[in-house]
Amino acid sequence: QKEVEQDPGPLSVPEGAIVSLNCTYSNSAFQYFMWYRQYSRKGPELLMYTYSSGNKEDGRFTAQVDKSSKYISLFIRDSQPSDSATYLCAGSLGGYQKVTFGIGTKLQVIP
Amino acid sequence: GAVVSQHPSWVICKSGTSVKIECRSLDFQATTMFWYRQFPKQSLMLMATSNEGSKATYEQGVEKDKFLINHASLTLSTLTVTSAHPEDSSFYICSARTFQETQYFGPGTRLLVL
Hints:
The complex is a heterodimer.
Chain A: E1 4-6, E2 11-14, E3 19-25, E4 32-38, E5 45-51, E6 54-58, E7 61-66, E8 71-76, E9 85-92, E10 99-101, E11 105-110
Chain B: E1 4-7, E2 10-13, E3 19-25, E4 32-38, E5 45-51, E6 57-58, E7 67-73, E8 76-81, E9 90-97, E10 103-105, E11 109-113
Parallel strand pairs in B: 2-11
Antiparallel strand pairs in B: 1-3, 3-8, 4-5, 4-9, 5-6, 7-8, 9-10, 9-11
């Protein structure tokens, strides 16, 4: 079993839709959770960073962590074609421990 | 946000040659840098963790004599692929950790070994 599981997609949505991206993880010791966006042939870009359970909002993006179910989510409101990319979730123990990534979900927002 | 650069952005080389990739944190000091490899349609695979002034820690299955890592300063880490072969062709990405424990990634280096 992979430490971080993520559906690779692709996920296609119309412009303006609310997008829900999800991951599950198996390591209950994870404390830090991240979402990265990766455009084709580019390095990942940090979108959201959360510690422990709870919600965090930044503009059109909301990250949720539910440690009881080991479930992490990213919601994108009013999706735009420029949001089309691969979204990687990640977890970490913190304390300078390595970050473990999911395989990434490819999102396509259709104009 | 923090900026990490990589050079070169792409490189084509003949089998048997060595290739050096540089990773720099431009506006912050990074005591820890990471090197990843990403094959098409696969996730980022951590190769090694590099701490400034000490030897890198390699993940299981990564040959330390083939992938030489040097982290000589707080803003620069290098990865040298020695005696590269076609199976080493991949997308190599570095990241640097800030004091807030978030990682910022470089733009990646695409390596093609002929």
